[in-house]
Amino acid sequence: MSHTDDVIHRTEQPKTSGDAQREPRPLHASIHGGDTAPVSVVVPCFRCAHTIGQAVASVAAQVVRPAEVLLVDDGSGDGTLEALWSVARDYPPGWVKVVAMPRNGGPSAARNRGWEQASQPWIAFLDADDTWHPQKLKLQMKALADDPQIALIAHEMNVQSRSAPAPALHYPLQVRVLPRHLLMLRSPLPTASIVLRRDLPFRFDEARWRAEDFMLWAQILLSGYRCAKLNQVLASWHKPPFGAGGLSGDLTAMYEAAVDVRKTLYEQGLLPWWQWQLADAMGLVRYARRRVLTFKRRHDGWLLARRSA
Length: 309
Hints:
Elements: E1 36-45, H1 52-60, E2 65-73, H2 80-88, E3 96-100, H3 107-117, E4 122-125, E5 131-132, H4 136-146, E6 150-159, E7 175-177, E8 195-197, H5 212-222, E9 226-237, H6 251-267, H7 273-308
């Protein structure tokens, strides 16, 4: 594998049929204070009527707003679709677009559908129960303008209550270019932190319902695309990112999914054997640590409930 900064195309997928019909803004259109960023925000939505309003509000509160927001209802069947239309009506016509999936296909299918419908040269992702820092897109778009070779940029996330203020920025702001090996993923790239080029020849694996984001970021990085990370907390989870419910709540299933991703990357020729084995060993250590942390969190919650009874 080359370690130069040249882009290496290892695995490519055909462009969607809509690509030839769209004429998005230039990839590195300049962004000034108050301008619109050439970004489409994709939000997969599954039974999220009680959280989607706050998620979209955090996008609307951006110092530099994205050009559009795509809310993709993943076959919720519970009134979520109506809630998405209600949210869309709270904003200027056409800024929030609602996309309805005919059936529940999982987060990968929903994100891919939004990606397919996006009109802008950059894609950002947000989950329906997370929120963004107001400076997120401004700082990421500046970093992309400063280094036009970057194809994907991420940042840190934290866990905090919905009522807490946005995390403070810490200076100096730094952009770290990630080394092109899987071991960097011991420092995770959260999905809600990602901004990437719409024309990248990859998509989420729709057969995967867990670790699908890990798979995609690894494919992009290991195929030679320049990836970077900002040293700022620019988005927040409002529940622990693992062991607290949802698809990420089953720690064993999440661990097994990550093991399968690394095996697949090795079979695709993107991951050397020694990195595969070392990454698996590190993954086992992380899994054990998460089991301990989850047990402690639940035990502490049980003790608090007993004391309050």
